[in-house]
UniProtKB/TrEMBL annotation:
The chain crosses the membrane at residues 297-316. The keyword Metal-binding applies. This is Cytochrome P450 4A10. Belongs to the cytochrome P450 family. Heme binds at C428. Its cofactor is heme. InterPro entries: Cyt_P450, Cyt_P450_CS, Cyt_P450_E_grp-IV, Cyt_P450_sf, Cytochrome_P450_monoxygenase. One of its GO terms (molecular function) is heme binding.
Length: 481
């Protein structure tokens, strides 16, 4: 009786005011959807704020403004190590879960969010989702990234380091405030291209700042702010943004990198054992080889550049650590000991600079995943992020401080939760190369004593916490004299 009265009343309103009916229906649908997501969804038992359980808008917003990791850190403080951050996304802050999510055995694939990092519409080793897709390419180039491959590149690395120190000296002598990030990115771009492609990009030879790779790096970072958006929607937005707003720096910078890669693929190096030569002889088409080259220019140039600039800034801000490192380097000239303090400085620098701070999302496959007694059904987006692990005070006491000494006797948890290069089966292929490059360049700068008496202009370096972070000020300034 009541139901029929209600429906006839509703039909009556519909006749007189169709807009009101539409609004009513929309609200009813939303209410039903939210009620389902909060109470009946297979993730309804996972704690998290109501707003994130109801809709992904919370996550989209914080990814966009670049404070996602900090906000999620607060949620972990409130709800514990497993938090639902969107209707279908779970963030975990427990190093024990690394083995379950990122190991080859559990076979969780990268989430479709990564397809936004395709280069010129081609998927690359980094952006492809399935591990099987990338294995032939990986096998072809892996010798260049192995310990022995990197050892062979040592003379090339040393030449690039010497050029960087000379350039830093020239800049320092100019008496101007120096943007060291610009210099370290140029150095990292040159060293990566020289080691992998057999031909340096030559960014350090440029005289006008910002160097020509800077805009290209920015274009690569831009998907980060829309990381969780469906890729098709993002592609339309990107197209619209490019049509409406032209960026004077990015266009020429992309052209400059494109011409360098075109030259590279036309040169005789394509027949050699270089990165591009190996891919081409494996049958990878030239356009896809070019995309892999561009990916490596970004990965090497940006990631290594950001870490080196951060470490220089940390050393300037902590003169006692700088003095301790210098002492070790001077003493080592007379002994053949390894350089444990230098290693600790680099480890600590990687912990705090973490160019990839956010959750690295994977999709729970056929079998459900159980983490901390929470059952996560197939299809759930799940992952851990470096920021949650690196700034966990239970594992790294006083986590915000630059304390290389903490690595003198690392605990098992510290070793497990130090993940600047990602985790497990899809972790970074450039890890050994990056480590050697960073160690060599920091060693050379400190030996040259170029940082003595230098002042750091910024009190704090703030980043947009995207999948690949971007410095808010896009510069790290040091003042000589
Ligand atoms: C300080 C330097 C670097 C850092 C901190 C870094 C960080 C990372 C991280 C966190 C991942 C994992 C991404 C994920 O799981 O979603 C990754 C993957 C990757 N990195 Fe790096 N990276 C560095 C240098 C390099 C260099 C020099 C190269 C190559 C030239 C490189 C190439 C790659 C590739 C191809 C992958 C994807 C691997 C796969 O999915 O199988 N990286 N890197």
């Amino acid at each position: 009786m009541m139901a029929s009265q209600f429906s006839s009343l509703f039909l009556e309103i519909g006749k007189t005011n169709p807009w009101l009916t539409g609004v009513f229906f929309l609200n009813l649908c939303l209410f039903t959807l939210f009620a389902y997501r909060v109470h009946l969804h297979p993730l309804s038992h996972v704690p998290g704020p109501l707003v994130a359980k109801c809709s992904s808008l919370w996550l989209h917003y914080h990814a966009y403004v670049g404070d996602e990791c900090t906000r999620i850190r607060r949620l972990h403080e409130k709800y514990g190590p497993v938090v639902r951050v969107a209707p279908n996304e779970v963030d975990i802050a427990d190093g024990d879960a690394i083995a379950h999510i990122y190991s080859a055995k559990t076979d969780l694939v990268k989430s479709s969010h990564y397809t936004k990092f395709a280069v010129d519409t081609h998927t690359t080793v980094f952006s492809t989702l399935e591990t099987t897709d990338r294995s032939a390419r990986l096998k072809a180039v892996m010798p260049l990234f192995s310990a022995s491959g990197v050892r062979e590149s040592k003379p090339v690395i040393e030449d690039c380091v010497a050029e960087f120190v000379m350039r830093l000296k020239t800049e320092a002598e100019s008496g101007r405030v120096v943007d060291v990030l610009n210099l370290t990115e140029a150095f990292a771009c040159d060293v990566t291209t020289a080691c992998l492609f057999g031909e340096s990009y030559g960014a350090l030879k440029e005289t006008v700042a910002p160097f020509s790779v800077a805009g290209y790096f920015d274009s690569f970072l831009s998907p980060g702010r829309f990381f969780y958006m469906p890729t098709a929607t993002w592609a339309v937005l990107e197209w619209l943004a490019a049509a409406l707003f032209s960026n004077k720096q990015i266009g020429p910078s992309i052209s400059s990198v494109n011409s360098y890669v075109d030259r590279l693929l036309k040169s005789s190096k394509t027949k050699s054992s270089s990165f591009q030569g190996r891919l081409l002889s494996q049958g990878v088409p030239p356009l896809e080889t070019a995309a892999e080259c561009k990916d490596s220019i970004f990965a090497g140039g940006y990631f290594i550049g950001v870490v080196v600039a951060h470490i220089l800034w940390f050393l300037v801000r902590n003169p006692d650590k700088y003095a301790a490192l210098r002492r070790e380097l001077l003493d080592s000239r007379t002994s053949s000991e390894s350089l444990p303090y230098l290693q600790s400085v680099v480890k600590e620098g990687l912990r705090l600079s973490m160019p990839s701070p956010a959750r690295l999302p994977r999709i729970v496959s056929k079998d459900r995943l159980i983490v901390q007694n929470y059952r996560l059904p197939p299809g759930t987006n799940v992952g851990l992020g470096a920021l949650q692990l690196h700034l966990n005070p239970d594992v790294f006491p006083e986590p915000e401080k630059f304390l290389p000494e903490r690595w003198e006797h690392p605990t098992a948890e510290m070793r497990r939760d130090w993940v600047p290069f990602g985790m497990g089966v899809r972790s970074c292929i450039g890890r050994v190369l990056s480590n050697v490059v960073i160690l060599e360049v920091i060693k050379a700068v400190v030996e040259s004593d170029l940082l003595a008496g230098v002042r750091a202009v910024q009190e704090k370096i703030e980043v947009k916490e995207w999948t690949i972070s971007q410095l808010k000020e896009k510069e790290i300034l040091l003042a000589w004299g």
